[in-house]
Amino acid sequence: MDINKLLGGRQCDCGRHHTCDIEYVYIESGAIRRLSEICAAYSHILLVGDENTFAAAGERVLSALADKALEQLIFDGKELLVPNEIAIHIVAERLDGVEILVGIGSGVIQDLCKYVSFFHKVPYVIVATAPSMDGYASNGAAMITHGMKVTYPAGLPKAILGDVDVLKNAPMEMIKAGYGDVIGKFSALNDWKLSRLINGEYFCEYIYDLTYRQIQATLALADGILKREENSIRALMEALVVIGILMSFAGSSRPASGSEHHLSHFFEITGILGGQAYFPHGIDVAYSTVLTAELRQKLLSFPFPEEIYRPTEAAHRERMQAVYGPVAEGCMALQNKIGNYKANRAALYKGKEAEIKAILAEAPGAEETQKMLSVAGLDMGEFYSLYGKEKLLGAILYAKDLKDRYTVLWLYYDYFGAEEESFDSTHNKGEEKSH
Prior knowledge:
alpha/beta; Rossmann fold; 2 domains; 10 strands; 55% helix; 12% strand; disordered C terminus
């Protein structure tokens, strides 16, 4: 599709005028050469990347901007770069006299440049080095501040350059992550439709349908992902960028981020807190989409009871502190502000049971989702092996507490929380005795 035409926005039947402030998107062979025209009005430029991303595209960027005054901020590529207060400060202190940032990278570099650009009023361009996530064109910066995963409202890049000659040579794990992120939209879209029914949340059919078409376009060329075929890589990158633009249209990440993303954030946050390994974001999203499909299938398999589950405040606090440690209080404060634990949706659920189940049934099942993932070499076995049953159960029960968004995780907790927390408690006591 013509992405630059999409950038013009539209007056939508949903009642909103959708806009996106990105000026240019180029996803093509040799796209980096367009930097010279995009940055023609700027003299003093700061390049931001890490050793790996600079190795992938740095020379092409330097060639395109040969006539400019360039400064380089290259993070160590051997250690995991975390988009936290330290990284923000490192970039911000290099802004003196800088007229525009040029980020060279993907997820973390993108979010870091986006955040600093917005809060310091310096425009930025992103040169993508991997088709690994959908945040290139979204207006949210996913940061980790005060130990919490927080998506801050932020600005958009002046331009996105997806040079297919670079993208197709990205680490395969990152290409798989982008593919997994797209597959995760099946779950996110289902959650969005569910929340419209339960909470009356804003919903746009145009955004929903166009997001769905991006998933289908990616699946149509999925066989070429592992072969690094240009058409497949271009289609994947286009889907990721278009979905990002649609998030800007919606004013939130809702069309692209739901229960599957909350589970992914759980693995990342608990991994950072506990010094434990976790998968790249998009791969966690992909595997978590299978988990959410299993939850929907379980909810579809029984009649809704008359009552929902709520733990005692003391029991809930104890479990949250065990799971989240130093960030537990922040999670609880967020949910108390929203009032999710105080909300008794039992009558609402029962009255709308048929409609709820009709929505849940629209999402692909677990087996079908696994088949989609297997096309890109994503095997659920590695997911189960890395995290184990206890951590997966913890994610299903408590990932919902990280965000202010209603998803199938809340519906599942409302009906199966008592059963699952009972198992979790018994399991943990058994573990303690065995030690």
